């Protein structure tokens, strides 16, 4: 049996493509985790954010939405998911590998802090996500915890230079996406 060849397909930021992508986001993420569709659309059209599908040319298996971060030459992943009917087949790891190949200088992303979990199942789910990223070469940054829009988060990365990002770095990323200085109000260090 021949192994499928997967690749990243850039999502064209037309209204219809953004609508399809946003429908996937609504299936895979809690409402509170989602950027409003008009914010996502504006950022994709301006090129501040990029979106890709993991595909074999026939099927869309998963997707990622990210920002290129010039300060360290890597990417900051805002959303990453494998569509529910394709999970548990190694496609999440394939998507991560494709993103690592895209960004040789590193990947940054946020995960929900397990210490702030609301119950045992929530704790298990958060820990499982962290373990997935660890298996794919990322690690928790022990030096930074943030509270973003009232959600306690931990930062994970595989970047060699972690000195380039701190709380002000994250606030700038949020300001860029929102187009307003919301980061300084809604992204705080969580001790």
UniProtKB/TrEMBL annotation:
SUPFAM superfamilies: Acyl-CoA N-acyltransferases (Nat)
Ranges where the N-acetyltransferase domain occurs: 8-160
Superkingdom of origin organism: Bacteria
Pfam family membership, one: Acetyltransf_7
Name used for this protein in its record: GNAT family N-acetyltransferase
UniProt organism field: Oceanobacillus jeddahense
Lineage of the species this protein comes from: Bacteria, Bacillati, Bacillota, Bacilli, Bacillales
